[in-house]
Amino acid sequence: MTTVLLSLADWNPSRWLASLREVLPEEKVIALEPDGRFSGEADELEATEYLVAWKPRPELFARLPRLKAILSVGAGVDHLLNLPQLPQLPIARIVDPDLTARMVEYVTWQVLHHQRLGPSYQTLQRASRWRQLPQPAARELTVGIMGLGVLGIASADILIRLGFRLTGWSRRAKEVAGVVTYHGDGQLTAFLRETDILVCLLPDTPKTRGILGHRVFSELRREGPLGGPVLINAGRGKLQNEAELVAALKDGTLRAASLDVFQEEPLPASSPLWNMENVVITPHVASISDPATLPRLIARQVKRMEAGEPLQFVVDRAAGY
Ligand SMILES: NC(=O)c1ccc[n+]([C@@H]2O[C@H](COP(=O)([O-])OP(=O)(O)OC[C@H]3O[C@@H](n4cnc5c(N)ncnc54)[C@H](OP(=O)(O)O)[C@@H]3O)[C@@H](O)[C@H]2O)c1
Q1: Does residue 287 have its Cβ closer than 6 Å to ligand 1?
Q2: CATH of 97-281, one of 3.40.710.10, 3.40.190.10, 3.40.50.10860, 3.40.50.720
Q3: Residue 200 alpha carbon to ligand 1 centre in Å
Q4: Does residue 202 line the site of ligand 1, with CB under 6 A?
Q5: For the chain, which terminus, N or C, has the lower number of CB atoms within 10 Å?
């Protein structure tokens, strides 16, 4: 019998455990407590072949001598690749229609919020003022997606149907229907110069960390109908330099921002971002991994590997995502 271990940091594992046991009825599925303790026998832990993980503790790996693969419960794998004692085993991430649909909703919600002048109307409402503002059409705005991967391409697809002009920037050259594409450091400026609304869906890697700073903000298009560029970051908080972000939002380099992720999470109460009228804050919920749907993908991965087939959605450790 194959043993699958759940280690979900501070999340409550009970729903994941129940769903995973349902889809893997013939395997032994065990879980660590949110505080990292294991309440079963040590030999049960030692038998673990698959680790299903969110932010596992680095010392866990020394207790798993039979481990064959690590399955991230998120699309991002920075929580694994940053660990000092990570074994050289295949790591797979989540690529799932439910997770993708949730991110597409978030991106579309925030793009429309800014296109329809949501921040300005909120300010007017607080002052009990009835005032109609000139409304830019979707076709007048270019949404630039930084990170044209699974989530970026799916978001672009819906935004194109709403009438926006779409551009995208990725590491390698790629063709995406309806999207003007750019790639690599050499084409970053050209991409930014066209962009009214910058949507960041990059992974956190040594190359991308801190990329959302003054240089990027100051190269965005300033002549667009929104009166200044907008940032939407649903990638990772470590991508953004928050001191430079706050400065850009104060001095008008950025007109507004929607932020789902932060350098430090939870965002400290002392952060000036909380009280800025031109900032929308959500607490890292753009696309939450759902214990009702994702265990099916995890079960498929375990069954594939047990049948001698390769895992899907394997992370490129050299590239960092
Ligand atoms: N806020 C949330 O709730 C939430 C939920 C899920 C995911 N996320 C974040 O979203 C990220 C993207 O997920 P995904 O499934 O779309 O990932 P993905 O399919 O791996 O796509 C990543 C994209 O980023 C590009 N990229 C990576 N490094 C780059 C670099 N140095 N320069 C330029 N482009 C670079 C990749 O380029 P190539 O196309 O050339 O490979 C690719 O287009 C995840 O890593 C995670 O951090 C956040």
Answers
A1: yes
A2: 3.40.50.720
A3: 9
A4: yes
A5: N
Of the candidates 159, 109, 168, 164, the one whose C-alpha atom is nearest the C-alpha of residue 287 is 109
What are the extents of the domains in the chain?
Answer: 3-94+289-306, 97-281
The pLDDT of residue 11: 86
- Which protein residue's CA is at the shortest distance from atom 18 of ligand 1? 149
Both tokens of 37, joined, read: 């303790």
Residues marked as catalytic: 236, 284
| Distance in angstroms between the alpha carbons of the first and the last residue of the chain | 31
Ligand 1 probe mutation, 171, 209, 289, most atoms within 8 A of CB:
171
What is the reported pLDDT for 34? 87
Summarize pLDDT for 10-27 with one digit per residue, the tens. 888 999 999 999 999 999
Name 106's Cβ contacts closer than 8 Å, sequence gap at least 6: 234, 260, 282, 285, 286, 287
Among protein residues, the one with the nearest Cα to ligand 1's atom 20 is 149
Which tokens in the block code for residue 27?
């395997």
- CATH match for 3-94+289-306 among 3.60.10.10, 3.40.50.980, 3.40.50.720, 3.40.50.1970: 3.40.50.720
Residue 99 backbone phi and psi in degrees, to 5: -65, -40
pTM of this prediction? 0.97
**Residues 152 and 201: beta-carbon distance below 8 Å:** yes
Atom 4 of ligand 1: nearest residue by CA position: 287
**Cα 66 to ligand 1 centre (Å):** 30
Under 8 Å between Cβ of 214 and 239: no
Residue 130 half-sphere exposure, CB side, CA atoms within 13 Å? 0
Q: Locate tokens 């995973």: which residue?
A: 20
Instruction: Give the C-alpha separation, 74 to 80, whole Å.
Output: 10
150 lines ligand 1 (CB under 6 A): yes
